[in-house]
Amino acid sequence: MEEEHVHNNDISEVILTEKQIQDRIKEMGEEITKAYNEDDDIIMLCVLRGAVLFMSDLAREINLPVVFDFMDVSSYEGTSSSGMIRIIKDLEENIEGRNVLIIEDIMDTGLTLKHVIDLLKTREPASLKVATLLDKPDRRVEKEVSADFNGFEVPDKFVVGYGLDYKEKYRNLPYIGVLKKELYT
Ligand code: 5GP
User: For 5-14, what is each residue's pLDDT tens digit?
Assistant: First the structure.
């Protein structure tokens, strides 16, 4: 199997293989390319740190002029939402009158995204869209928040890999899996 060289004993179940992720990202790149005019320039805004791998793979599948920017917001401590969201690093670009595509790793309660969207709207971008790799619809608290481009729906389980961490580990796994229960503290 292709994952064998990165088999990790802490993972109980692989939910999405490397191939499934990469194939879907290619499709998403096409969807996104079609959703804009060919001369639109797009600010791809990566929400750190989980979306870094998704952003770098997705960017290569988008056939439009793109600019990269990054913002860091606090979200989770361990595996449950703290409900507290804080801007740790703001983006660098002036987004007024420009097309912003927020790149998220996973939409869970939607609280992070709601906060980021509300903040960015005050800066009057020409358009504001969201691409998320994973969506956990069962957990949504912010019902009016949704992604314009969504990779996969996942069940209500804590997942790691392909950018997603547990206590900063497992981000470099090329697939997405569920951590063994005994590893949660
Ligand atoms: P929300 O604000 O939508 O509840 O949470 C969004 C953030 O929580 C994500 O960007 C991610 O950092 C974290 N998160 C939510 N669910 C998971 C999960 O299953 N695994 C990991 N590793 N992080 C998650």
Answer: 567 899 999 9
